[in-house]
């Protein structure tokens, strides 16, 4: 089997030497990101005083680094490809954070709709947008005080010329399956997207013009959802994913894409790109062995062994007493063989593959062009 590094080198070679790659020029001074655990670089653990335990972060950071992953997320690979530093979380005040090249407002567990009382994260999309508003006000105040803060904060024109990235909505859908029928969930999608539209309109009113919007992945292929909702084989598709969850994700994505087109039509001075993450991830799971993986659905870090190695009572890296027995959710011997890291999130190896596909531009609507300068050759 070909190694993933070799396969990704080939993908990079194809991208670098394609006509598309040479038409792209990069000029974004900063990135402002909004989302959930798919792009959270430490916001939730800082915001609620939580802690991630090893083996989270083991591959790249060599320690837990605020990410629900064994290493880097898609946002990390994209920032690296743009020759920008990894984004610091808005909520992380410890250390010496710099926000000169942008800020990350994403927090794991976040939803588009306002958070419920028992939500994992109180930092819903509306709260993240409000945090951005405060961030911008404080930046402009500090810039007025002279040069001493300039190396830590964005320049004023970064707010208009910067890139605004979004990856949120997964938790609105996935969480709803615990209390609602599929029909009820499908009917709720317009309400979710109305809230999302309100948020991006507020950002536009604040000067945002470059919008980069990821759709949601195949929720039914996440180990957690298969373990909970896939016990009846008739509920699974040909890949072993939960059909209802993926149906909801696809409808959400269709309506999200329509919203992106509508928003673009209403704001001709903006650039709105919709990225089809669902297709990239589903293709990875369907053809996992082609890309050097061995386990498309089983979690690397978990408890219970095959076929899923997932127990909702014991998160990755934690030890719990279950029915009088102490059990620990441990990492596997080689996470690069796994698409799924902990039952809910993708492994670094999978995130690297997804990033390589995003960078081809062919999963974007509209595709990359000179009118939407973006990412340059892969560096991984």
Automatic annotation (TrEMBL):
InterPro entries: GDSL (IPR001087), SGNH_hydro_sf (IPR036514), SGNH_plant_lipase-like (IPR035669). It comes from Vitis rotundifolia. The keyword Hydrolase applies. One of its GO terms (molecular function) is hydrolase activity, acting on ester bonds. Belongs to the 'GDSL' lipolytic enzyme family. This is GDSL esterase/lipase At1g54790-like. Pfam families: Lipase_GDSL (PF00657). Residues 1-23 form the signal peptide. Keywords: Glycoprotein, Hydrolase, Signal.
């Amino acid at each position: 089997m070909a190694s993933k590094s070799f396969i990704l080198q080939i993908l990079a070679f194809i991208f670098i030497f394609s006509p598309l790659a040479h038409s792209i020029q990069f000029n974004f001074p900063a990135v402002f990101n909004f989302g959930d655990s798919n792009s959270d670089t430490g916001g939730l653990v800082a915001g609620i005083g939580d802690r991630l335990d090893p083996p989270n972060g083991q591959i790249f950071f060599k320690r837990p680094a605020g990410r629900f992953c064994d290493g880097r997320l898609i946002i990390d690979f994209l920032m690296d490809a743009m020759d920008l530093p990894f984004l610091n979380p808005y909520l992380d005040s410890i250390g010496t954070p710099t926000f000169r090249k942008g800020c990350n407002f994403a927090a794991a567990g976040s939803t588009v709709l306002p958070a419920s009382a028992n939500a994992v994260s109180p930092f819903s999309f509306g709260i993240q947008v409000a945090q951005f508003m405060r961030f911008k006000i404080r930046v402009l105040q500090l810039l007025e005080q002279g040069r001493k803060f300039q190396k830590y904060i964005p320049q004023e024109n970064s707010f208009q010329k910067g890139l605004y990235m979004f990856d949120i909505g997964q938790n609105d859908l996935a969480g709803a399956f615990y209390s609602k029928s599929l029909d009820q969930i499908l009917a709720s999608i317009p309400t979710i997207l109305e809230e999302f539209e309100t948020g991006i309109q507020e950002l536009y009113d604040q000067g945002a013009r470059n919008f980069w919007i990821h759709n949601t992945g195949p929720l039914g292929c996440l180990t957690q959802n298969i373990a909970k909702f896939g016990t009846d084989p008739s509920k699974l598709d040909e890949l072993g994913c939960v059909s209802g969850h993926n149906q909801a994700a696809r409808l959400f994505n269709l309506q999200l894409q329509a919203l992106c087109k509508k928003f673009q039509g209403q704001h001709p001075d903006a650039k709105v790109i919709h990225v089809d993450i669902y297709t990239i991830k589903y293709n990875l799971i369907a053809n996992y062995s082609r890309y050097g993986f061995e386990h498309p659905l089983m979690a690397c870090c978990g408890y219970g062994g095959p076929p899923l190695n997932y127990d909702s009572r014991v998160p990755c890296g934690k030890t719990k007493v279950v029915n009088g027995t102490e059990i620990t959710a441990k990492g596997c011997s080689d996470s690069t063989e796994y698409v799924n890291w902990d039952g809910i999130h993708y492994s670094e190896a999978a995130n690297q593959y997804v990033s390589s596909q995003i960078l081809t531009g062919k999963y974007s609507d509209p595709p990359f062009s000179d009118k939407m300068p973006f990412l340059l050759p892969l560096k991984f």
